[in-house]
Amino acid sequence: MPPRSVAFAAVAVVALSLVAAPVTMADWSEQAAFSAERVEPSEFNDATPVLQYDELAPGARDAVRRTIESPDGYHTVYGREDWPDRFHYSDYAAPGRGTYAIVYGSEYYRLDTYAGGGFPFVYWILELPFVVYGLLLGTVGYQVRRGGRSARTATILAAAGVAFHLLGPEFDFPLLEPMAFVGLGALAVVAVGVGLLWDVVRPSPDADPG
User: Are 95 and 47 in contact (CB under 8 A)?
Assistant: First the structure.
């Protein structure tokens, strides 16, 4: 298959995945919030279950460790399918149903778990830069198909689109906070949009200067 056709196919797939951001990034609105605070054992009442960190399932251990080790004692898991099923999630916390005693090393922590997120349309707005980027990327792919854009440029832009998925809610925002992620998407939209607009308004090299 010619390189141009390969580039077009890759761009088309990535563009479609971004245009469908309300589906592919749906994890954003499905948030399990964890908070942890170091306390003395005497602060727990008899109704609070005491859980040994080392005896938790891997997913629960990961969430607890990230919460305890975070600078502010908070951690969010995005995507309901990734919520550790050992804990309870709602809009309130009670002993055994959102409040737990965790023995981590030789120290005790109070762990609270809540269901977070909000109305889906709020997250649709946050995902809008990525939808627009997908549309712009589709325009670039169309230009590649017609021979008006290099396959290399299209591949670079498609790789940036893949990076949005790797940095986003599908992987719990591993490097950027959510609003910084939105800002990065908006910046990418501006950069690509300006580039495409410049292609439209710049003088043709064959135009008569006089």
Answer: yes
